[in-house]
Design goal:
The protein is 21% helix and 35% strand. The protein is an alpha+beta fold. The protein has one domain. The N and C termini lie far apart (42 Å).
């Protein structure tokens, strides 16, 4: 199943063709995983979907207790999410001192449900643990079909690597002209001409000794 087609169907069904890009909003927290030697070994994402997507995505998912879902009950939906994200490299790029870092497929994944919000959790391992003056993780959708935003209070933290330091870089605001151009794209049309989401990437800059 192709993720963007799925999400487009979700939001066309909910809001009609008047809805413009982006279609889905994700508030995220990230854990940067660091080994005892100070090498970064991966990143663990926690992506909380907006309430409209959460409601639609849960349609057809059975639960023993109404309004509550266990991880086991959500496992098939989590599998669909992860398999769909693979086509887009999990919307995560990594680089060390300007050179691309290869990330592996999710080492683990699950969905949580709380306060009417679905949260997708998954870990992307670094294929080869890396030390660098500056390791960058950039999270974004190139076409801004999905809007990513770090949680303002708890955007990111280290798991291990007490000597490492991290800077959280938030994207700049869109200009009026950029926002207008994006909003003019119909809800049922892909954004193929304005693939400049990298300009609005959320970034983690990691410095380890």
């Amino acid at each position: 199943m192709i993720l963007r087609l799925l999400l487009a169907a979700v939001f066309i069904a909910i809001a009609g063709a008047a809805m413009a890009h982006p279609h889905v909003w994700i508030t995220m927290r990230s854990d940067v995983l660091v080994g005892p030697d100070g090498a970064v070994t991966g990143i663990r994402h926690h992506w909380a979907f907006d309430d409209m997507f959460s409601v639609f995505a849960l349609q057809g998912t059975e639960a023993k207790e109404k309004g509550k879902y266990t991880r086991e009950e959500l496992a098939p939906l989590a599998k669909v999410n992860i398999e769909s994200l693979k086509e887009y490299d999990y919307f995560t790029d990594a680089s060390a001192d300007g050179k691309k870092v290869e990330l592996g497929e999710p080492a683990d994944y699950w969905l949580d449900y709380s306060d009417s919000i679905l949260t997708l959790n998954f870990t992307l391992p670094v294929k080869t643990p890396v030390k660098a003056k500056e390791l960058t993780f950039a999270i974004y959708d190139p076409t801004i079909f999905i809007d990513f935003e770090f949680d303002k209070k708890d955007p990111a933290k280290f798991v291990g690597g007490a000597k490492c330091k991290m800077d959280v870089v938030y994207p700049r605001e869109m200009t009026y002209a950029e926002g207008k151009a994006l909003s003019d794209i119909p809800a049922d049309a892909p954004n193929l001409t304005m693939a400049w989401g990298v300009k609005f990437a959320n970034k983690l800059l990691v410095h380890c000794p």
